[in-house]
Amino acid sequence: MGGFCLSLASKLEAQLTVYLRADTAIQTMPDGRQVLMWGYAKDSSFGAHDGTVSVPGPLITVPHTFTKLTIVLENNLAEATSIVIPNQHTASVLDNGTPVPPTTHTRFTDSQNRSRATSFTFDTPPGNTTPVTYVWDNLTPGTYLYHSGSHAALQTQMGLYGAMIKRLPSGTTGNGVYPGLVVKAGNQVPLVFSEIDAEVHDAVQAGQYGPGGTITSMQHSTPDYFLINGQCYTGAQPAIQAGALGDTILLRMINASANQHVPVLGQQSMTVIAEDGRPYADRRTGQYSVFLPAMKTCDALFVPLLGGAYPIYDRATGFTSHGTTGPVGGMLAYLAIGQNFTATAPANIPESGQASRYGYNITVPATFDWKVAKVRVILYKLSHPRPADLDILLVSPDGTAVMLMSDAGGTAQPANLVSLTFDDSVSVSVPTPLGTGAWKPTDINTGPDTFPAPAPAGPYAATLSAFNGSPAAGTWSLYIVDDDPTGGGTGRLNAGWQLFLTPAP
Ligand SMILES: [Ca+2]
Ligand SMILES: [Ca+2]
Ligand SMILES: [Ca+2]
User: Fold this and answer.
1) Which residues surround ligand 1, an ion (CB under 5 A)?
2) Residue 12 pLDDT
3) Which among 177, 250, 255, 426 is least surrounded, fewest beta carbons within 10 Å?
4) How far is the CA of 484 from the centre of ligand 2 (A)?
């Protein structure tokens, strides 16, 4: 009876199950070179083949309420593979109650006649038609690397690795990182550092890797390409959205390569708080660089004091673009830190015509010398007896004009101190009656939308993404017009407006 209860309890243990498939893909490098990669795809079930192979593999985030992770592995490669997560506890029994198989220790004889083991755990054979399951229980929170545990020197070089994050098993939001540390989900940034030695990949593709081949082992491998999150920087990549000015930002740095790297964050120092998923008793403040040996993870915090695009790059060997694509490249990425700009004065809206502040301007200082990657706008405490009379236009310093709201909100219900956020990522239009919340820009086509000068003439863009690429610095103007002279009463933008700008690199 007791045994029955125990096994029932273990079955009910909250766990995340992930179906990974080890498979091949071709990656095009910045110089056009086509490189064979081995990576993981996340499928919906074993054999479904509905995932896409990526390098790094899919980010595995184990929710705060879960204590256990199961990875079901399908191996579409021509050699045995497996998965390990260093510093997480491997379960002793599988989900079906059977003991975890012993480590395979598959052996081969190298060119000097030495017998060598190839696996850190039990293997999944090539082409397996039955699922092979890897289980970790008693998960500890933090930042981890998962990677192939079989023939690992080659298989991690080929791309079989990814980031695994375990949220802190306490707190209500699930954004706990380590005991005593909560960071907003949007401020947690995984950064996987990796390398590609293209000659090794070419040899694998040609069947020329290993004893007797053109490349016999990984011992003398020298990388050609240096990557962050699978990208060798060329200038074309967007910045990673990391949060806003004043946020506490967590960098989850993971070195999936065989060499050391030394990430540096622009001119900004960091506080290093943990390595390999274990928090330090004493946080290391004022760190200008982070030492990241092979296969190590490191967590660091910083609080940006200015909005902008912060470069993060490797000061060891990886800050190069293989001599191809311009002055910078390689192990470089930008973190986009957005900034709010606010005006608080009220603007009165007459029964007909333009508001008392027209345009109602916010001037972004010249020190914000970057281009915009995302814009969000908030109008604070708008009151109007007949909201559909309003047309509201935003114009950027380079003259790009986006209609935030026009003829929306209906004629029957007055708006009273409503705060409207406009954001392209929201799928819902401005509602009737007008309500406080986040909406996408909404232009209802009923009648004229005419803005007197100095507003620019139409037509006007319908989404805030039209501002992408505009300079941040300069005058942003809000134009508010009541387009219906047949009454409707007067209104007021009571508490001004706010512009949130996120930089492009
Ligand atoms: Ca309209
Ligand atoms: Ca109109
Ligand atoms: Ca009116």
Assistant:
1) 406-407, 443, 449
2) 53
3) 426
4) 8
Ligand 3 centroid from CA 448, angstroms: 13
* Interval between CA 399 and ligand 3 midpoint (Å): 27
Q: How far is the CA of 343 from the centre of ligand 2 (A)?
A: 25
**Structure-token pair, residue 130:** 């039955």
How many angstroms does the Cα of residue 443 sit away from the middle of ligand 2? Answer: 8
CA-CA distance, 308 to 245, in Å (whole number)? Answer: 9
- Which residues of the chain fall below pLDDT 70? 1-13, 106-111, 170-172, 320-328, 447
How confident is the model over 317-329, as pLDDT tens digits? 777 666 555 546 7
pLDDT of residue 306: 84
Task: Tell me how far the alpha carbon of residue 465 lies from the centroid of ligand 3, in angstroms.
Answer: 30
What region does 112 belong to: left with phi over 0, alpha with psi -120 to 50, or beta? alpha
Same fold, 2-175 and 196-337: yes
Report the candidate in 124, 119, 125, 127 with the shortest Cα–Cα distance to residue 149.
119
Q: Which residues are near ligand 2, the ion (C-beta closer than 5 Å)?
A: 391, 406-407, 449, 483
Per-residue tokens: 358: 């027209």
Three-state DSSP state, 201: helix
pLDDT of the residue at 402: 98
Q: Helix, strand or coil for residue 347?
A: strand
- The Cβ of residue 186 has, within 10 Å, a number of other Cβ atoms equal to 13
State in Å: Cα 389 to ligand 2 middle: 7
Distance 372 CA to ligand 1 centre (A): 26
Q: Do 24 and 53 contact (CB within 8 A), yes or no?
A: yes
The Cα–Cα gap between 216 and 47 comes to 33
352 half-sphere exposure, CB direction, 13 A CA radius: 4
* 487 C-alpha to ligand 3 centroid (Å): 5
The ligand whose atoms approach the alpha carbon of 449 most closely is 2
Residue 131: closest CA among 94, 168, 174, 106:
94
Q: Are strands 249-255 and 297-302 parallel, antiparallel or unpaired?
A: antiparallel
Superfamily for the 2-175 domain: Cupredoxins -  blue copper proteins (2.60.40.420)
Distance 419 CA to ligand 2 centre (A): 20
Separation of CA 389 and ligand 1 centre (Å): 10
Domain boundaries, the chain: 2-175, 196-337, 344-503
| Per-residue model confidence as pLDDT tens digits over 398-430 | 999 999 999 999 999 999 999 999 999 999 999
Three-state secondary-structure class, residue 477: strand
CATH number listed for the domain at residues 196-337 = 2.60.40.420
- Distance between CA atoms of 7 and 185, rounded to whole angstroms? 35
CA of 390 to the centre of ligand 2 (A): 7
d(CA 135, CA 132): 10
The angle formed by the CA atoms of residues 253, 256 and 259, to the nearest 5 degrees, is 100
Q: Which CATH class is domain 344-503?
A: mainly beta
Q: Counting ligands in written order, which one lies closest to the CA of residue 391?
A: 2
